[in-house]
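Key result, reporting period 2: structure in, sequence out.
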């Protein structure tokens, strides 16, 4: 069983920045693809924000390209999401996801972008 714990959420003004982190409990972290998803208020489904493969290739949703950056530190078993130029539409609960033989999710961290 893999455990994921997100941190770094909070309240920020439009145009500001936040850095989210996700810590994984598995010692095989370096072999797995990692993702950040988000679920905005009143939306039923989570949407993909960014992903990073085991060999470091990244992909981003169009709505965050140029503003968000995903990185990973295999030694620390963490994946981070640097979020810059935040907008009110970025308000959501952000979730970390690990894909192994099973899929694991963290409990989420709230990000609120508001004046």
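The corresponding designed sequence is given below.
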């Amino acid at each position: 069983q893999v455990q994921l714990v997100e941190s770094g959420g909070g309240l920020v003004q439009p145009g500001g920045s936040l850095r989210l982190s996700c810590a994984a409990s598995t010692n095989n972290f370096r072999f797995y693809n990692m993702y950040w998803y988000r679920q905005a208020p009143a939306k039923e489904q989570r949407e993909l924000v960014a992903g990073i493969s085991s060999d470091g290739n990244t992909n981003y949703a169009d709505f965050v390209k140029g503003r968000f950056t995903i990185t990973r530190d295999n030694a620390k078993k963490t994946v981070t999401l640097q979020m810059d130029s935040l907008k009110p539409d970025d308000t959501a609960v952000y979730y970390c996801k690990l894909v192994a033989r099973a899929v694991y999710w963290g409990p989420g961290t709230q990000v609120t972008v508001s004046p």
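The mean pLDDT is 96. The CA atoms of residues 21 and 58 lie 16 Å apart. This case is discussed further under Risks and Mitigation.
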